[in-house]
Automatic annotation (TrEMBL), chain A:
Record gene name: c2cd5
Biased amino acid composition, Polar residues: 250-275, 909-922
Annotated source species: Lates calcarifer (Barramundi)
Chief localisation class: membrane
A GO biological process held by the record: protein localization to plasma membrane
InterPro entries, per database record: C2_C2CD5, C2_dom, C2_domain_sf, C2CD5, C2CD5_C, C2CD5_YbjQ-like_dom, C2CD5_YbjQ-rel_dom, UPF0145_dom_sf
Membrane is among the record's keywords: yes
Annotated Low complexity bias: 313-330
Record's subcellular location: Cell membrane; Cell projection, Ruffle; Cytoplasm, Cell cortex; Cytoplasmic vesicle membrane
Gene Ontology annotations for the cellular component aspect, listed alphabetically: cell cortex; cytoplasmic vesicle membrane; plasma membrane; ruffle
Protein name: C2 domain-containing protein 5
Automatic annotation (TrEMBL), chain B:
Any Pfam family matching the protein: FIBP
GO BP term, pick one: platelet aggregation
PANTHER family referenced in this protein's UniProt entry, alphabetically: ACIDIC FIBROBLAST GROWTH FACTOR INTRACELLULAR BINDING PROTEIN (PTHR13223), ACIDIC FIBROBLAST GROWTH FACTOR INTRACELLULAR-BINDING PROTEIN (PTHR13223:SF2)
Gene Ontology MF term list: fibroblast growth factor binding
Protein name: Fibroblast growth factor (acidic) intracellular binding protein a
Gene: FIBP
An annotated GO cellular component: nucleus
Domain of life: Eukaryota
């Protein structure tokens, strides 16, 4: 019995009227965990009930603690008939199981009903006592920390990166069980919510066990997904990167962080520690003769199992084998099975390779879900590797052994691994997996970036080796090292053009580089980056079973090719040479496939300047045609010039660089083929590497081609003052200010015309995406100058004639005047108007903390060590440590109070206010030790609800994360049978998304946090039936709850100013 | 081909003040888009009409979802659904409860009930306030009468509370001081059913009445003497009204009247061009004011308070072409002189009465 879960129901407010006769509600609460249920008393005739219940205690295994959510149900008591449920709250208690995260969950939670949405709020206190059982990690994996963040979390350093962890669990979907025919939609939705919550808990526990086995203590870049396979079941799967993280001590954290830009902060934190000194230059080591051709992109669609397999393409197998030999050469130094990776390979390089290899080869899959790394971790980047496979779903017979699903993913991962090998790389970074399901067909996709990593982080024993060989190193600038090709020049996996690095001039670099990771912060860029999207629709015939799967398999390579072509053309058009954060999504519908590739384009200084785009006609003799071509050519050239200006791309001119060279001989040009004009033979080669020469040739052979070129040119640049990217931050912008607006937008487009062409569809799809972006720019115009970061587009084909695009992103303001300055030159400007606004609250709090002395010491329990609390305050009984912002705030107030001891500074006005408040709001809950008044002392009373910021990024600009409180992973279902009354689908979804945000914020606030980082909406499945006036929507969101404080110049002096926003205790004091 | 669904939700709720005003003023989405287009926001930001439509729809939806909360503004501050910065909440509330003076002037003290949609139409036409906006402002007029949901809720809250009316409204609806005062005035007028619609009162604005209501609330209600009684600011102090009868001595006692007149005239002589008229009219004017005081025990006469003031005092003065400063001078000396009358024992009541009368007349004495 290793744990005791305690819950206390304090109060409710804003409850709905359940009794029409009295306009009131007789509410009581059921608290359930596992199979145990407790009930509170009925609080008669009140919409703001005060239960102030006893502590309900559940004695449970920690295994259950990990799997089960605490379930709180609010009901209306009815003497004569069944009690009516008002709504439920599910609380994930996982954060309480980790000593470093939250210690208590306390706050107002929205009471949620799947039919009615949010119906009032309930104030709950939850605590967990884990018994001091030495064996407690044996059964469960309590204590393993989970992070959605795909980099080493700030305020931790990575002592070791263990590698890939994955797990999946399957179950029957309650929606498809026979019982669903007889139960109410509410019961069915709740069964589903509960099941998924259970499955996520189980999944997390199982992954935690794997991490413990590997010797790690945390999972970073945790990515959990649901596959709603309909009849065949429900799959919850997750991948992540196991690490051993050390919390940075209070002393070092502020120091290393002070002047580090958010961008570089985690890196410097994490790397300074393991080697303790200046051995860092490992990252710069030069691999003198490592050479090979670049492959910007390798996409080898595979298909398998049920449908007839799309045979693996030739080049792939050839390359795999060639690189295999390359990698398995006999080691010179006799350490494991390293490689003499090249004739001129230096000893260090060889050594490095061996270490890394041995470290990595022990693993089945040397994959990393991280997208940004400590400096020095990433040595070289090969290019994007991806694999797709089309499967036919069948019922999962034995949920306990989901072998088929495991085997499917295994297959895909093997393929990714072999692609990476072919690129001379031993690891895959920025790795992710996804699915798209339509009826019984499922496309599994995986992608990542092939890379060579520094072994230091993988093996403890290797930490010193770098220093031993330090003297041999010829440090090359970190700003270009990762661009240098990892593969053998003589054994090029793809025909490609290599040049010497434009930065260090010693190593070969490819002409373009595609990656799925964030741009390394130390990389040298010219100008700014921008969002580049390739969009594509392909019609397909409606079909069933294997025929359908085959049809899809056959379409996939064409789509990949065309998306790639579009990306390449758009990249050239913007005069850029590298893509970061590349994400390609292919969605399957009944009669079409949608492809959307998003990435952030930049001009890497180390890579050669991209050539222009040349237009060529098929029939050179035709004069009118030639004239036409000339005009198009002019437009393209004009666009390129304009874009150069727009993105401030003025690379230093290099002598050997032939700028504006005449069109090369036709034979030397690489031809940009249009897929439908190609033979399948050509296709199977899938030569996606472009750029034999500096110019690209677009051949115009028919009207479609002309349209394609037009569509190339129709991508409107963002309006002045706006930038956009899909990576964490925008390359080229460094001085972020604190303005942050996270948003989610969803659009569904109905195609009315039944006989559409591919071209027409493409246009519609492109317009849909472009218009969405335009809408964002317009809505967020008040934030100018600003950048839309982490623009994450998700496309789906929910029904035959519907296209759904969902976007989550964050708009961040920056200081325009200093856009060109790097953080190294000048610390980020902080302050700005928002800071002042935030300042008011803590200061006001100090002014009215009249009754602080009467509050119990449990309130002051949490004192973050890193905040350098004065010795005086440290004398407070810390009790069970809760590093919580609110308690911290209280501590500050306490300090303020002790300074002017005894002087009750509440103004008369405040008192009268408080008086009237208590007379009006009899509901004001007074939970022990955390008394709050419902209204603040400000005339408009805004501060009783804690502000919680949300961002899809791993940081909030201008702030420092001082504590991670645990992962947020929530799944909600909302259904309505009165769609019209709720304002149609838009009204329905609008309020649902707002409700989801509200519930996320409430959970974070209850954990004591004031922000969610790495937030993402991973699932948004909307089903509607306007004729029946019905709709249903499923949303899955995740993120990391954190406490962050405003970064000030004097990091070591925590003051009230540091607090980002008022926390839940904001309105305390006016009791 | 059409956009079937289009939503945009920010973690911090995005609201455009211009759109909010259009929504409050009752514009339909399409009309609002037109207005915005004319406003030039498109050229400013190279957006298309579609973008504007989508944005307007989003915001209208948000406002509709917020409206429920705006009905009891205190909820807005501690609801969890929308994350709205406090200063924005204040703007939302203030604007929501803001009203059109011309509109409120029309219905001030009027008895509107659910059935009088036609009345609303008339007022709407007369004051060029859109009907939807009328409806929103509607509840205001029903303070003091039953049968209207919105009002009921509001009045119930204010009614049950002890303490000053203005402060209660300010607290409960989180309004600015100015707006709370205006609302208090409306509540006060509705409760006492003051006649404001007569032709002779047409020249008075809502702000004139609001000012007078403030004066009455501060000095003549029960709340002026005891601040812990229910309804203290809504009902006039009955005792005081009784005592006002005593003032009649000023006009019934001939000696006193003469004495009063001579004191005032001595003080005024040479200080104003209208002296002759003042002297000639003194007895009439004094009778007018004292009679108003003496009759206030009758509810009917309370209702006619303003019309009486105008007929018995303001109109005569105006026809004699008194200037505003003449009025000030006269009323000051008229009030003060009464203190010197040895036989006049009701100084306290007199001051309480004349203090309000003076400021009301000052406010009301204009064209």
């Amino acid at each position: 019995m290793p744990g005791k879960l305690k819950a206390k129901i304090v109060a409710g407010r804003h409850l709905p009227v359940m009794d029409r006769a009295s306009d009131l509600t007789d509410a009581f609460v059921e608290v359930k965990f596992g199979n145990t249920t407790f009930k509170t008393d009925v609080c008669p005739k009140s919409l703001n009930p005060q239960w102030n219940s006893e502590w309900f205690k559940f004695e449970v295994d920690d295994e259950d603690l990990q799997d089960e959510p605490l379930q709180i149900t609010v009901l209306d008591h009815d003497t004569y008939s069944a009690n009516d449920a008002i709504g439920k709250v599910y609380i994930d208690i996982d954060p309480l199981l980790c000593s470093e995260a939250a210690s208590v969950i306390s706050g107002w939670f929205p009471i949620y009903d799947t039919i009615h949405g949010i119906r009032g709020e309930i104030n709950v206190l939850v605590k967990v006592e884990l018994f001091n059982d030495l064996n407690r990690f044996r059964q469960s994996s309590c204590g393993v920390k989970f992070f959605c963040t795909t980099s080493i979390p700030r305020c931790y350093r990575a002592a070791m990166v263990h590698g890939f962890v994955e797990e999946l669990v399957v179950n029957e979907d309650p929606e498809y069980q026979w019982i669903d025919r007889i139960r109410t939609p509410r019961a069915s939705n709740e069964a589903r919510q509960r099941l998924i919550s259970l499955m996520s808990g189980e999944l997390q526990r199982k992954i935690g066990l794997k991490v413990l086995e590997m010797g790690g203590n945390a999972v970073v870049g945790y990515l959990q997904c649901f596959d709603l396979e309909g009849e065949s079941g429900l799959v919850v799967r997750a991948i992540g990167t196991a690490c051993t993280l050390d919390k940075l001590s209070s002393g070092s954290a502020p120091n290393t962080n002070t002047h580090v830009h958010p961008n570089t902060a985690p890196a410097s934190n994490a790397c300074n520690s393991p080697s303790k000194d200046g051995k860092e230059p490992v990252f710069g080591e030069d691999l003198p003769s490592f050479s090979g051709p670049p492959t910007p992109f390798r996409a080898l669609p595979t298909s398998s199992s049920s449908p007839p397999p799309f045979s693996p393409s030739k080049p792939c197998s050839r390359q795999s084998s060639s690189s295999d030999t390359d990698l398995s050469l006999t080691p010179k130094t006799g350490m494991g099975s390293g490689g003499s990776a090249g004739k001129e390979a230096g000893p260090l390089k060889t050594l490095l390779r061996q270490q890394t290899q041995t470290a990595l080869e022990q693993r089945e899959f040397p994959f990393f879900t991280l997208t940004s790394f400590p400096p020095g971790f990433l040595v070289h980047v090969g290019g994007v590797v991806s694999a797709r496979s089309v499967k036919l779903l069948d019922r999962i017979h034995n949920p306990d052994e989901p072998e088929t699903r495991d085997a499917w993913w295994e297959e895909i991962r093997q393929e990714i691994k072999s692609h990476a090998k072919a690129l001379g790389c031993h690891a895959v970074v920025g790795y992710s997996e996804s699915t798209s399901i339509c009826e019984e067909v499922c496309i599994l996709s995986a992608s990542g970036t092939a890379a060579i990593l520094n072994p230091r982080y993988m093996r403890e024993g290797c930490l010193d080796i770098g220093s031993t060989d330090h003297r041999f190193e010829e440090p090359s600038p970190p700003s270009c090292g990762f661009c240098h090709i990892p593969y053998d020049e003589l054994n090029m996996p793809f025909p490609a053009q290599l040049t010497y690095c434009y930065h260090c001039r010693r190593q070969k670099v490819p002409d373009v580089l595609f990656t799925t990771i964030d741009m390394p912060p130390e990389a040298a860029v010219t100008g700014k980056g921008c969002l580049i999207q390739a969009r594509l629709c392909r019609l397909k015939k409606k079909a069933q079973g294997e025929v359908n799967a085959t049809a899809i398999s056959n379409l996939l390579p064409f789509m990949e090719y065309e998306l790639h072509t579009q990306l390449m053309n758009k990249l050239k058009l913007r005069s850029m040479n590298a893509l970061f954060g590349l994400h390609i999504q292919i969605s399957v519908g009944e009669n079409m496939l949608l492809g959307l590739a998003s990435a952030t384009g930049v001009y890497l200084t180390a890579l050669p300047a991209p050539g222009g785009i040349q237009i060529a006609g098929k029939t050179p003799g035709d004069l009118s045609n030639e004239h036409h071509i000339l005009t198009i050519q002019k437009r393209i050239n004009d666009t390129i010039t304009k874009n150069k200006e727009l993105y401030q791309i003025n690379p230093p001119e290099l002598t050997e660089e032939v700028v504006g060279s005449p069109i090369p001989e036709p034979r030397q040009r690489s031809r940009l083929f249009r897929s439908h004009s190609e033979s399948s033979d050509e296709l199977s080669e899938l030569d996606l590497s472009h750029g034999k020469k500096d110019a690209f040739v677009l051949e115009i052979d028919d009207t479609d081609a002309v349209e394609d070129i037009h569509s190339l040119l129709t991508d409107a640049p963002p309006p002045t003052g706006f930038y956009s990217c899909n990576t964490e931050i925008m390359p080229g912008i460094y001085n972020w200010t604190t303005g942050v607006q996270m948003f989610t937008s969803v659009r569904v487009f109905r195609l009315s015309n039944a006989n559409l062409t591919n071209q027409g569809l493409n246009k519609i799809f492109t317009d849909l995406c472009e218009n969405l972006l335009k809408s964002f720019y317009f809505k967020l115009r008040s934030m100018i100058p600003c950048c839309l970061c982490h623009l994450n587009f998700t496309v789906a084909v929910p029904e035959e004639e519907l296209i759904q695009v969902a976007v989550t992103a964050v708009a961040m303001t920056f200081d325009k005047d200093q856009t060109q300055e790097k953080p190294a030159d000048k610390p980020v400007t902080k302050g700005c108007s928002e800071t002042e606004e935030q300042l008011q609250f803590p200061l006001e709090l100090c002014a009215d903390s009249s009754s602080i002395t009467t509050q119990t010491s449990s309130k002051i329990s949490g004192v973050p060590e890193s905040t350098n609390v004065s010795p005086r305050a440290a004398s407070v009984d810390y009790g069970s440590f809760a590093d919580r912002c609110s308690t911290w705030l209280e501590l500050l107030r306490l300090k303020a109070h002790t300074i002017r001891r005894g002087s009750v500074k509440t103004s008369r006005r405040t008192q009268s206010l408080a008086h009237s408040v208590s007379s009006l709001e009899r509901s004001s809950p007074l939970p022990e030790g955390r008394s709050r008044s419902l209204r603040s002392n400000r005339s408009f009373g805004g501060s009783s609800v804690p502000v919680v910021k949300m961002t899809p990024l791993s940081f909030l600009p201008g702030t420092r994360i001082i504590k991670y409180l645990g992962i947020i992973n929530m799944f909600f279902i909302r259904e309505t049978t009165s769609l019209r009354e709720e304002g149609g689908v838009s009204g329905f979804l609008h309020s649902f998304i707002a409700e989801v945000f509200a519930m996320v914020r409430a959970h974070v606030a209850a954990l004591g946090g004031n922000a969610v980082v790495s937030y993402s909406m991973k699932e948004c499945v909307l089903m509607e039936n306007p004729n029946k006036n019905q709709a249903q929507c499923l949303i899955n969101v995740s993120g990391d709850a954190v406490i962050c404080v405003i970064e000030t110049d004097q990091e070591s002096m925590p003051s009230t100013i540091n607090v980002v926003q008022t926390c839940s205790s904001g309105a305390d004091g006016a009791t | 081909m059409a956009v079937e669904l289009d939503v945009f939700v920010g973690n911090t709720t995005i609201m455009d003040e211009e759109v909010y005003q259009l929504w409050l003023d009752g514009y339909t989405v399409n009309d609002a888009v037109k207005v915005r287009m004319e406003g030039g926001v498109l050229e400013e930001f190279e957006a298309s009409a579609d973008v504007l439509l989508s944005d307007t729809m989003d915001q209208y939806r948000t406002f509709q979802m917020c409206e429920r909360l705006l009905h009891s503004p205190a909820k807005l501050a501690n609801q969890l659904l929308f994350q709205i910065p406090p200063h924005r909440q204040a703007i939302l509330i203030e604007r929501y409860y803001a009203f059109d003076d011309a509109f409120v002037r029309e219905v001030l003290g009027k008895k509107l009930s659910k059935g009088t949609k036609k009345d609303l139409d008339d007022i709407s036409a007369k004051t060029s306030v859109t009907l939807k906006s009328c409806r929103r402002q509607h509840w205001v007029q029903f303070i003091g009468c039953d049968g209207f949901d919105n009002f009921k809720r509001v009045f119930k809250v204010v009614e049950e509370l002890k303490g000053p009316l203005v402060e209660n409204i300010r607290q409960h609806f989180l309004l600015s001081d100015k707006l709370a005062r205006d609302y208090a005035a409306i509540v006060f007028f509705a409760n006492n059913r003051f006649e404001t619609g007569k032709r002779k009162l047409q020249y008075l604005t809502f702000q004139d009445f609001a000012f007078c209501a403030g004066q009455l609330i501060n000095s003549w209600t029960i709340g002026a003497v005891d601040n812990m009684v229910e309804d203290m600011d809504v009902d006039l102090d009955k005792e005081f009204l009784q005592e006002l009868k005593e003032l009649k001595i000023l006009i019934t006692d001939k000696d006193l009247l003469d004495q009063h007149k001579s004191l005032v005239c001595t003080a005024l002589r040479g200080k104003t061009k209208a002296f002759n008229e003042m002297e000639a009219n003194f007895k009439n004017l004094s009778r007018g004011l004292v009679n108003i005081a003496a009759k206030l025990t009758n509810t009917k006469d309370v209702r006619d308070f303003f019309i009486d003031l105008v007929e018995k005092f303001i109109e005569p003065c105006r026809s004699d072409r008194w200037t505003a400063s003449d009025m000030r001078l006269y009323l000051t000396h008229y009030t003060n002189s009464a203190h010197i009358l040895d036989t006049f024992k009701h100084q306290v009541v007199w001051d309480r009465y004349m203090g309000v009368i003076k400021s009301c007349i000052f406010k009301m004495y204009h064209d």
